[in-house]
Write a structure and sequence with these properties.
8-stranded antiparallel β-barrel
Length: 201
């Protein structure tokens, strides 16, 4: 079949698909700015202090009064299902002795198991993108999500250290026995508030 003959049929098929998805397609919002603020858990900061691990920031993250704020740079989310990605700039650094780990460029990923992934950099070497923090949705969370004047806000999001991240940090910093960070997914990192601005397309 020649392209000239097939093209109208392709357009018709795409149009039917768009119409059949109806409202769900219209509920996907493109995100373009905002911020996620994490109130760091005293368990997390206390454990790092006891291990002589200092916490720093990757620009443009701000850390003040026990809270870290990460700018939202983009992403998209389906309001009906809450499936999506929310991209951030900045990150946190963990340093002990001559070892420095940067966890940065976070993505809140809710397309499957809710998790925050990030780029892992060890002593200046980029290792890759890995799961860092597991997400626990707040009590009373319900769908669909709603934007108020293009603003999406979600409070009380619990964050725990992902087992992969815990095992990796234990290995990098040589933490063993009673000093090791629990790698069972229960170690609390903090509570997050996400504020993002979006529009339909």
């Amino acid at each position: 079949m020649r392209l000239k003959t097939a093209f109208p049929s392709i357009i018709a098929a795409v149009a039917i698909a768009v119409v059949s998805t109806g409202a769900s397609a219209q509920q996907t919002k493109t995100l373009f700015t905002g911020r996620t603020t994490v109130k760091l858990s005293s368990t997390f900061t206390g454990a790092l202090s006891s291990l002589n691990v200092s916490v720093g920031r990757v620009f443009p993250t701000e850390v003040e009064d026990g809270a870290a704020t990460f700018p939202v740079t983009g992403g998209a989310i389906d309001l009906d299902t809450a499936a999506g990605n929310i991209l951030h700039s900045g990150g946190l650094t963990l340093k002990a002795g001559t070892t420095k780990v940067a966890l940065q460029s976070y993505i809140i990923d809710t397309t499957g198991k809710p998790v925050i992934t990030g780029l892992v950099v060890v002593n200046g070497k980029l290792i890759g993108r890995y799961p860092l923090f597991d997400i626990k949705l707040p009590a009373g969370f319900s769908l669909p999500l709603h934007l108020n004047e293009n603003r999406l806000a979600l409070k009380g999001v619990g964050l725990t250290l992902d087992p992969w991240a815990a095992s990796a940090l234990n290995g990098v910093f040589g933490l063993t026995g009673s000093n090791a960070i629990p790698a069972d997914g229960t170690f609390p990192i903090g509570t997050a508030q996400v504020v993002a601005y979006g529009a339909g397309w």
